[in-house]
């Protein structure tokens, strides 16, 4: 299923709440609930704190917390038919880039630039503020806390732009462990349900797994150990998820990768195979074979090109010299904020159509010696 995009609706965060209800938030400043049967935005509520950088649901799915540009953390109640503003938590200077609830819902940890803070949900007050760079002498560049997690035993796990994954005792305000996993930024982080495994994604396209393992065989003392990197992406890994049997990562290369944890799978089958899904699944280029035209679809406009030609012949895969270069004929801009959902050019090249979530547009294309003309039908 695909929910079409919208100019004013960037998606920075998505989360499920109250079972099967899907909410999204972004830099437009609204929290949007999606209609999964109609594949559209059902309703939106203004977050009231400017652009929204992060949003998470509590363990029971009854509350949403959002982190805003103005440094505020706000709680919304999930009610039948929508969401309702509940309260503001303690506000501090600096945009809130990432959030995590304690599994019991008692505390929220909020990551910003150079620091993160732990907030008591009942009182709404900040109970601990920790500088992530206090132990680095003369840190000249700012350190962005891109992802954060609050574990049930009181440990805070932070991932930052210096390529570190750090483990903090938030009650003492001390650093317990630090792992320099990458020379580039660590952008995303997810923890397994048992809290004994973590997956992180970096800006080089690599993903790493950290596992909580005994220091000595049969001993009680445990340490976090990093695995080798897995290079399945070519660009930033902006999202990761940890299922009971697999590690899932999504990157700016428009790939979703599911890597099975072989020790967690009993039988070999489809679930034990490494799976890669490339998006989009719908075609964004259509061809008019007879007229030798190509139509390219972008989010807000279409481009029509005439193919080049050659007088040479050769085998499949050979590059032939062109006697006529490809020609850009026209750019057609879509009116309104909705993104183009699908488009097509007829085989004869005289008809061109595209659709948004709410409207269908049809054009007559005329090519002659004077150039090209489009007439809206």
Automatic annotation (TrEMBL):
UniProt record, GO biological process: maturation of SSU-rRNA from tricistronic rRNA transcript (SSU-rRNA, 5.8S rRNA, LSU-rRNA)
Gene3D superfamilies: YVTN repeat-like/Quinoprotein amine dehydrogenase
InterPro entries reported in the protein's UniProt record: UTP4 (IPR046351), WD40/YVTN_repeat-like_dom_sf (IPR015943), WD40_repeat_dom_sf (IPR036322), WD40_rpt (IPR001680)
Superkingdom of origin: Eukaryota
GO CC entries: 90S preribosome; small-subunit processome; t-UTP complex
SUPFAM superfamilies in UniProt: WD40 repeat-like (SSF50978)
Coiled coil regions in record: none
GO terms assigned for molecular function: RNA binding
Full protein name: UTP4 protein
Native source species: Leptocoma aspasia
Biological classification of the source: Eukaryota, Metazoa, Chordata, Craniata, Vertebrata
């Amino acid at each position: 299923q695909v929910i079409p995009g919208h100019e004013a609706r960037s998606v920075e965060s998505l989360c499920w709440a109250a079972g099967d209800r899907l909410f999204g938030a972004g830099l437009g400043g609204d929290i949007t609930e999606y209609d999964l049967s109609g594949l559209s935005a059902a309703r939106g509520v203004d977050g009231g704190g400017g652009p929204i950088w992060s949003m998470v649901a509590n363990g029971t799915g009854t509350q949403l917390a959002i982190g805003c540009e103005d440094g505020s953390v706000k709680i919304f109640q999930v009610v039948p038919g929508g969401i309702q503003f509940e309260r503001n938590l303690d506000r501090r200077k600096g945009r809130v880039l990432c959030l995590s609830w304690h599994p019991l819902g008692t505390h929220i940890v909020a990551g910003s630039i150079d620091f993160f803070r732990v907030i008591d949900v009942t009182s709404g007050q900040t109970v601990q503020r920790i500088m992530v760079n206090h132990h680095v002498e003369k840190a000249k560049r700012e350190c962005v806390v891109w992802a954060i997690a609050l574990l049930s035993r009181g440990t805070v796990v932070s991932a930052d732009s210096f390529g570190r994954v750090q483990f903090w005792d938030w009650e003492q305000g001390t650093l317990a462990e630090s792992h320099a996993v990458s020379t580039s930024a660590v952008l995303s982080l997810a923890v397994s349900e048992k809290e004994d495994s973590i997956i992180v994604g970096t800006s080089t396209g690599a993903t790493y797994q950290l596992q909580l393992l005994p220091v000595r065989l049969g001993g009680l003392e445990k340490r976090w150990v990093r695995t080798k990197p897995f290079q399945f992406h070519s660009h930033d890994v902006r999202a990761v998820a940890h299922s009971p049997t697999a590690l899932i990562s999504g990157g700016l290369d428009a790939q979703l990768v599911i890597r099975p944890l072989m020790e967690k799978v009993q039988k070999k089958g489809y679930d034990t195979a490494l799976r890669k899904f490339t998006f989009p699944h719908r075609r964004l280029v259509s061809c008019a074979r007879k007229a030798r035209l190509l139509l390219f679809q972008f989010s807000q406009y279409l481009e029509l090109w005439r193919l080049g030609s050659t007088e040479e012949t050769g085998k499949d895969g050979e590059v032939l010299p062109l006697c006529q270069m490809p020609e850009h004929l026209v750019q057609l801009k879509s009116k309104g904020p909705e993104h183009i959902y699908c488009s097509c050019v007829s085989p004869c090249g005289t008809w061109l159509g595209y659709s948004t979530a709410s409207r269908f547009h049809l054009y007559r294309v005329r090519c002659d010696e004077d150039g090209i003309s489009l007439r809206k039908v």
